[in-house]
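quick one
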Amino acid sequence: EYHYQLPSDNVGECWAVSAHPNGDTIVKDGTFAGKTLSYLWEHHNELFGEAKGEVFPLLTKIIHAKKDLSIQVHPDDDYAMVNEGGSLGKTECWYILDCEPGATIIIGHHGQNRGEVSEMIDEGRWEDFIREVPIKPVEFFQIEPGTVHAIKAGTILLETQQNSDITYRVYDYDRVEESGDKRELHIKQSKEVIVAPYIGRVPDVDKQATCNEEMTNLVSCPFFHVWKLSVSNKTTIVQDQAFLIVSVIEGEGSVDGRAIRKGDHFILPYEYGEAVFEGNLAMIV
Ligand code: ZN
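structure w/ zinc ion:
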């Protein structure tokens, strides 16, 4: 069962699989019905292959931006450890579920080095600074720590991220809130963590990350692997990871006889073994 926060004036967010205190996912049915994901992490870590860490490491969200969201950057684990009281940094990735024609995102910047980044920010040369790229549905973007990024209006995406809140706001289009104030910016921290120059690269793909040929690896990084799994009729996969988070993004069908459809999210725990999918389904795993 997932939390759904009604769209405010500019964004709707579904925290689909989360052990974050601001929106802890509740198990819908079965042995652990009614328990939170954070409870399972703490008391039934065997479900996750005894994976290490104080908190469930990932957060799966669906974000629907109706206005341009503020431009931000996240620190890496090392910076967050020192400067944010031992928090995790944040690596995230975006799978574009849908977008309006002509939609764009912001990923990266045009500063050649740290000095230039600092100058462009201080002088408010946002047009020169910001790297904006067109997007289409089914495209996938890896957002490494230190990458300037923003979701712009008219986009729905599925985000997989490290379970962290540490966000530095670089620029908010000089917008004024209803209260008459501008949102707080974090210029000092942003300048410290923005990686310059921005190096656009194709995400690493690790063909060895799973024995399942049916799953297309979209990215492999130290914090997560992400695959797309498309099923037409019937597909069997082997759960060979510590755990798998599955988000159904299209269609309907079943997994081992349980009905699933677009909008459902579930976890296949450690040593689950074979999972048989039937129907017409697209999933991000
Ligand atoms: Zn972000």
